[in-house]
Each structure stands twice: as structure tokens, then as C-alpha cells.
Amino acid sequence: MSLSQPFFLDEYIEQQHRQSTKQQDRIVKATNTQFERFQKICESVKMYFNAEWEDSEGKGQESSDKLLERHKKAIIGYSSEVNFFKGKIEEYLKKNNLIHEWKPKWYPDITTAIFQEVWGVAGIYEWKNMPGSSSAKIIGERIYFLMNGRPELREQTISRDRLNQLISALLLRTPEKRRDEDYHEVYMLDGTRIMIYEDSLAKETSVVFRKYVVDVYTFEKQAELGTIPAGIIPMLEAQVRVGYNVAFVGPVRSAKTTFLTTWQSYEDPALEGIQIETDPEIPLHVIMPKAPIIQMIADGDRLSKIIKPLMRSDGDYLITAEARDGIALKISLDVTKKGTRRVKMTYHTSDPIDFCYDVATEIVQQFGGDIWATTIKMAKGYHYLFEFTQLKDKSQKRLKGIFEIRYNPNTLEISIHQICRYDFLKDDWTFKYDIGADKEAIAQQEDYEAFQVFQKELKKLAEQKPMNGQSVFQLPYMKFIKG
What are phi and psi of 368, to 5 degrees? Predict the structure, then answer.
């Protein structure tokens, strides 16, 4: 363009935009062509594998079931099965000079890419290698990863046929679960929990993957993540040593189970423990490999059948992870009635003040009895509540409060005493020095030296960051349920 020619900015911008659009179209077209070729290679590998399988294993239902069994094991993480499929893939690629072909960017190599697309978890594979993301979802053909506390739509997708194949393989080893049921729960070897919601329940078939991203269970790590203040650690360690019965409460995904696991990791490894879970979430055999802890996985009717033998066990303490129903709650309560210390549980609730009453209500609804008497038993059986929450950034969890449950046998009154409170605006904690005489009496039986540390540390925290406002709460329902 010569200097004598007029220059029109809008025409220039439009020209640049057209050139940019053409370039983007060429990139998209090239990428689509590459992906289509990759998909054809995946299909060729699958056909090659199936033909070879039929030649060696024969045709028929038995052969098909055997292949699905290997598929299932490969998906959930059995290394021998994964290596079996990958070996066949690599054999085919080398034989056909395809080992250096293009693959989607979310896979590390072409062999892994084909395995995941044909027999693995497809686009979810990338999420499994993201240490900071705790969940992923497939909704229809769309895939989402939880990133920085928010679901992020990913570039990769999964076809309806491939999703159905994945679900069928996952359910193969649980024949009691049929595809005509509304939802299913499956676990991978690494502890990843998979919830499957069929289209009879959801408008689009949906699969939710959940993993636990904290693999270092120490109070120091919890402080580093911002879940607790670092200054509270000596107090918490002392409380563990005393052996109080504690409950970790709050809404879903607020780090209750993670904190229970952290608390348990400080427990005396010489003591005999029993852990009841409805899901295999807490790997105590890994965290405390030398501790004599029996880990049971049971729920509903199965759990109700083990109440009596459980009560006859020689355990020094009980852990009830995710006490979801009256059966689990009754077991937890009955153990405390025997005078057992160091009992631990997690429980979903929106208000820790209601804890004793809410638990009593669930127990009475299922087993009968008197709500007032059962509420009092809960207040006598449990000593401290640790409430947790998640912030606007869902990846951030916080200890919202610590509460002492206090029961007065002379007045039959239950009161809740808050000794720690989280300030959302300041992202900091305040404290109140308030310890009941009954908690000191327990410490005299268990570990008075640890109690003195607890006492000293709480007093120091209360002086440094005093709590303002109401800190003692009366159970609001007592005057009504007394009659």
C-alpha cells in the first residue's frame, strides 16, 4: 500500500479478521482430520484384537464374558490386565508402522491413548492424573473436571456407545446390579469412587468420579492447605491423646472424612480399633499399617446383622465413617454407652447445635424409643464436635467451629459450648476458653498430662484471638420433648 492511498482502519481490521478466521478453519479442519484418523486407528486395533481373541479363545457367550472380565479389571486398575491390552496395542502399531501417529493432547502416548479410548476410561484419564482435582463428571457426551472449585467443561467427549460399554464393563463383576436399576456405585483399585446414574433416573446418563486428593494425613498438612490454623495443632494433638469421643460434622465435600483420617493417624497404634464404612474410603491399613484395626464395609441390612457380634468384640475404640442411617448411628451410640473412649464418626448436618437431637431422631425412627432419653444418651456419649465447611472456591475447606457437648445430670440440660469459631471475612479463627468439669474427669482416667496441654493451649489461643458474641447454646428442643 502506497502512502498516497487512503487507509481505512475498519477495512484493515476486517481483512485481518478474515485471514485469521481462514487460518483457524484450516487448523480446526486439520485437527478434525487427525482425530478422525486416530479414531479409525482405534477401531482397527479393536477389530484386530477381537479377531485374535476369537482365534485363541473361540466364540460364544463364555468367551465374551471372559473378555468383559478382563476389560473390567483393566478399567479399575489391575496392572496385569492393563499391560495385556497395551501389549496388544503396541504389537499392532509396530506391525503397521503407526507407533508415531498423532494422538489427542490429553494422553501421554499413542498406546495409552488407544487403550483409554477403546478399553479404559476415555477422556477421564487426564483427570486421574490431576492431583488437585477431586471429581469429574460425564453428563451425556460431555466431560467436566472440578478445577479450582468449579466444574470445567473439557474439550474431550465420550460417545453414547462408548459410555454404555464403559458402564457395562464396570458393572460386570457386580451381577446383583443390573442396567435397569437407577444408579450404581463402583470402586477402582486406587480408591476412586464411581457413581453411575442411568437415564431412567437422570435425563442424560451420568457418571461421577470422586477421588481423595489429600495423601498426607497430618495436622501440619491440613494447616498448609488452610483447613485449620497452624497454632491449633498442639491443642488438637493433646485432644487426641486424651481420647475424647468426637464427631466431624458438616455438609457434603467439606473435608469431614479427610480430617477424621488425619485425627485417627495420631491415635495410639497399640490400641485395637474397629472401623465401619459404607464405602471403602479410609485406607487405615496403609496409613497405620502396624495398628490392629479391623476394617469392615457394611451398610443397611448387612450392617444391622453385625450389631451383636460387634458389641462383643474386644475393640478399644470404634470409627464410624459416614454414619448415614439409624443403624450406624445406634452402633456408635451403643459403644459409647459401654464407656468406650476414642470413638469417632462423621455425620452430615447443617447445624452442630442440633447434632444430639438429629441423631436421636434418626435412631428412634428406626428402632423406636424415647427421643428425650436418646438425645441425653448422645450428649453423654459424645464430647466434642468439629464442624467443617467449604468456601466459595469449593477446593478450599475450613474448620468452621469446635463445640463441646455438655450435659448436666442435676438439671437434665444439654448445652453446646463453642471454643473455636471461623471468621469468613478475615479468614481467621477466634477462641474461647471453656472446658467442662466432666471433660477434666475423663482426662483423669485417660491422660491428664495431655489434658493439661489441651488446657494451656486453648487458654493461650483464647488470649491471643478472643471470641466475641454468644458461645453457649442451649439445646432448643429439650423443653418440648420433655413433655
Answer: 80, 180
